[in-house]
Amino acid sequence: MKSILDEGDVICTEVQRVQSEGICQLHTRSAKYGKLANGLLVKVPNKLIQRQTQHIIKLKYGIQLILGLNGYLWISLPFEQSHTDTINYSSYSVKSEVVSPSSRENIVTIAFIIKLFGSNNLQLIPDRICAVFDHIKALNMSSK
């Protein structure tokens, strides 16, 4: 793993087990987990994130939201999913992609909404985030 990830990298992983000594066993064998790139990391109090069946959510604006139960959220374009369920670490790479200005604006707007919810201690529910996003777009407001 040290050949793939560097200290400070942002990753999406499943916590498989926490041992009594505080050691975490992480699960990253599925193609939906791994190193994150081309997005924005936002932190809110973890009490605002509810446990859900899916924590990787594709919003209708071409934006993907990863809700971490630790209070960290990753906002980005949806990453490409291969047809396999496993990762071949020998050919693993994360590519920096050009993100269009409209996609960047959507990512920043979602981040603003999440920070707004966090500062007001509101539960982060994807439908609520989308409703506020729609309202902002209807008022022709932007994150500028």
> How many strand segments?
8
Distance between the termini: 39 Å
The secondary-structure class comes to: alpha+beta
| Number of separate helices | 2
Largest sheet geometry: 4 strands, antiparallel
Radius of gyration: 16 Å
User: How are the strands of the biggest sheet laid out side by side?
Assistant: 5-8-7-6
Q: What pattern of helices and strands is seen along the backbone?
A: EEEEEEEEHH
Q: Percent of residues in helical segments? A: 10-25%
> Which overall shape is indicated by the principal axes computed on the Cα atoms?
globular
In what range is the share of β-strand residues? 15-25%
Mean pLDDT: 81
Give the tally of structural domains.
1
Instruction: Point out poorly predicted stretches.
Output: 82-92
Characterise the protein shown here:
The chain has one domain (11-138). The chain is globular and about 50 Å long. The chain has helices at 101-119, 126-138, and strands at 11-12, 14-18, 24-27, 34-35, 39-43, 56-59, 63-67, 72-76. The model is unreliable at 82-92 (pLDDT under 50). With 144 residues, it is of the alpha+beta class. One of its GO terms (biological process) is poly(A)-dependent snoRNA 3'-end processing. It is found in: Nucleus. InterPro entries: Exosome_RNA_bind1/RRP40/RRP4, KH_dom_type_1, KH_dom_type_1_sf, NA-bd_OB-fold. Residues 39-78 form the K Homology domain.
Task: Give the tags.
144 residues, alpha+beta, 4-stranded antiparallel sheet, two-stranded antiparallel sheet, 2 helices, globular, RNA binding, Exosome_RNA_bind1/RRP40/RRP4, exosome
